[in-house]
Design goal:
mainly alpha; Serine Threonine Protein Phosphatase 5, Tetratricopeptide repeat; 2 domains; 54% helix
Length: 222
């Protein structure tokens, strides 16, 4: 037995050096591909092999980021519950949390919020998840992010808050009207102006967003 023991130790050392069976670039690529197309059986099999769940491609995309980009809800659920990092950012500074918020993918957003989403994290424009959600008219996403506690007065690299972005890049239609109302209700600072000193109210008036302007005036904006 003593003669065999060194051989056993050497074999174990080799296994440890090689690492898990699934920890190869090829397996990691297959995991990302399975996530991107919604292949749940393939995903489960690869995770069972020990593939690194947060392995990133050359653009920094993980399996969870790719699943989020395609709004693959069940794939995202499996990955998040298996421990995927909801705050891991790619080269474009998107994370699953930020991308779900910006895209209005409410179910994936809920998953990220339940698994440690960093509400203060920002995208490549220096904006929180709330700012692009406001711009794009994702009413329920805006409601959820406000309830989660995202700062409604955060200023991005362009010098815009979520209210300013909703007015400047929005169309003033029903969705953006509801979003402005939600921001007012949440206590957003209506007087915060852009870098040129132009307020949300003035932008709304210049763009002919009559109903948005009325909402702001009625809330005390000037």
């Amino acid at each position: 037995m003593q003669a065999v023991l060194p051989q056993i130790i050497g074999l174990l050392a080799c296994v440890l050096m090689v690492g898990p069976v699934g920890a190869t670039p090829e397996a990691e690529q297959r995991l990302r591909a399975a996530a991107a197309v919604g292949d749940l059986p393939g995903l489960d099999a690869l995770l069972a092999q020990g593939v690194v769940i947060d392995a990133q491609d050359e653009q920094g995309n993980s399996a969870l980021l790719l699943a989020t980009a395609g709004n693959r809800i069940e794939v995202a659920r499996v990955l998040v519950e298996a421990g995927a990092d909801v705050n891991l950012q790619n080269a474009r500074q998107d994370s699953a949390y930020l991308l779900a918020g910006a895209s209005g993918y409410l179910q994936i957003l809920e998953l990220t919020l339940a698994h440690g989403a960093d509400l203060r994290s920002t995208n490549r424009f220096g904006g929180t998840a709330l700012i692009p959600a406001c711009e794009r008219g994702h009413v329920e996403t805006v409601r959820r992010l406000i309830a989660a506690g995202v700062d409604v007065d955060h200023v991005n690299h362009l010098g815009w808050t979520c209210l300013l972005e909703a007015v400047i890049l929005g169309d003033g239609g029903p969705a953006h009207q509801r979003i402005v109302a939600l921001l007012i209700e949440a206590g957003a600072d209506l007087q915060l102006a852009d870098r040129d000193g132009v307020s949300a109210l003035r932008h709304a008036e210049r763009r002919g967003q009559t109903r948005v302007a009325e909402l702001l005036i009625n809330a005390g904006a000037h």
